[in-house]
Structures are given as C-alpha cells and as structure tokens.
Amino acid sequence: MAPHDPPPPDAPDEAAGRPDTPALADFAVDLTSQEVLRQAQVLTALGPDWDPLEALHAEQAAHDLLYSGLDDEQQRLYDDLVAAGVLPARGSGHAAA
After folding, report:
1. What global pTM score does this model have?
2. Which of 29, 31, 67, 81 is buried deepest, with most CB atoms within 10 A?
3. Residue 16 in contact with residue 7, Cβ under 8 Å?
C-alpha cells in the first residue's frame, strides 16, 4: 500500500510496538483552482489575436530556415542528430524559396 493511502481500519498497525515511528498524516493539495488561474493569465498575456496554428507554422518555418544552407559536413552532422533523435525530423533541411 502506498504511503499516502491510509491503511483500512481493520488492518494491523505495522508501526505498533515501535515508539520512534511517527504516525502518517493525510496530506492532499488540490491545485485545480491555481491551474485554472495560471491558464487564464497565460491566455490573457497572449492576447485575443494569438493564433496557435500560426505560431506553430512560424516555428516550423524558423526551424527550416535555421537548418537551411548547410554545407556537406553540417548536413551530415544534422542528419546524424536527427537519426539519433536529438533533433526532430522536419523538412528537407533546405528553406523554402
């Protein structure tokens, strides 16, 4: 049984006979209201004109531009990093014209 689950009332007390063992205390925190508040604050900060799909496309275009124009050695290293899972596989490594 996990430490945060209290034992059933009829279960034997495993700590009985050991005076140095502290009793377990029930400890629970509900973060739902804080999470809702945090999400509302983030969306307010982004503003009403924020478009998540536009942001994603801009990020993908920036990634493609960043890894465009690589020389042969840089392209080989990039391909190795993609194959190793260090960088995400996206695009051909060349920026769109």
Report:
1. 0.45
2. 67
3. no
